[in-house]
Amino acid sequence: MGGPVANVKIRVKDIPEMGYLSTNDPPKGEICFKGPSIMTGYFKNQEKTDEMLSKDGWLFSGDVGKIHPNGAI
User: What is the DSSP letter of 70?
Assistant: First the structure.
C-alpha cells in the first residue's frame, strides 16, 4: 500500500454498477494516473491508446481500489 510519487496525480473513476464512487468515504473506483512520467500512448496503436488514456491525459489502469485518508491506495 502506498501513494503516488510527487509528480503524479491520482484519482478514481466511478464504477456505478459495482457501487464504487469517488464520493464514497473512502473514495473507491478505477485507479487513474496523470503526470509527466505516465506514458503518452502505445507505439503506432491509436486504438489501444484511446482505450487507456483520456483526452485530458489520465491513464486508466483497469485496477480497482480505494484511496485511504493518508493518500495511500
Answer: T
